[in-house]
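just leaving the lab so this will be short. what follows is a protein written twice so to speak, once as letters and once as structure tokens for the fold. can you read through it and tell me how you think this chain folds. anything you notice is useful, everything is just below:
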Amino acid sequence: MFLIFGLRSKDKFLGSRLGHCEVCGATAAQSLIRRTTKFSLFFVPLFPVRPARYFVACTNCGRLRGAAAHEMAAA
């Protein structure tokens, strides 16, 4: 008998906004991303194993930085 299990992270695009990148210094569109990690059994995601994490990605340089949930609500 085989038991196939693991963790899977999935990104969800929440929107974008115009902002200043802390890495490249350009004023460009910033993508807002929500990442969830779930436990999977036989390739079926069952339940989250950690709270959702939020990121802001610069469309100019591609760098991701962490963001707080309240920062996403303000966008």
